[in-house]
Specification:
Layout: H1 2-22, H2 26-46, H3 49-70, H4 77-98, H5 111-124
Length: 126
């Protein structure tokens, strides 16, 4: 179960950027479903403290969403496409991890989102 908590880091960033820029929160809904199922299992062993972790998730996701809504360059189609494609590949990796086909360390790919944004801003953008 702990792998699910670590792997949803990509979904936090991509989902929050999508929600802040175009108002599409579907990635955050899927992430909350995954974490909800995991939290039920974890709360049986760790107790009520698991419920309090929702506050930190709210703060982090809310901060990223608000920041993304104020950064105008994230609304450009080239940048948004780069974030969506890169994040989609990372979420595909999460799916592969959940199927236990291969162990992919998704957290190591989080800097790829920054590189995708920089690439789109400096090389693809008109």
């Amino acid at each position: 179960m702990t792998g699910t908590w670590i792997n949803t880091g990509a979904m936090v960033i991509v989902g929050s950027i999508q929600d802040g820029t175009i108002g599409d929160a579907i990635t955050l809904y899927v992430k909350s479903l995954l974490e909800g199922v995991a939290s039920v299992a974890l709360s049986s062993t760790l107790g009520n403290g698991v419920a309090f972790s929702a506050l930190s998730v709210l703060v982090v996701q809310g901060a990223i969403t608000l920041l993304a809504s104020h950064l105008d360059f994230l609304r450009e189609p080239a940048v948004l496409s780069a974030v969506t494609v890169t994040g989609g590949l990372m979420i595909l990796g999460i799916g592969i991890n959940l199927l236990e086909m291969v162990r992919i360390r998704i957290g190591n790919f989080l800097p790829a989102l920054l590189y995708a944004i920089l690439w789109a801003v400096f090389f693809v953008r008109n």
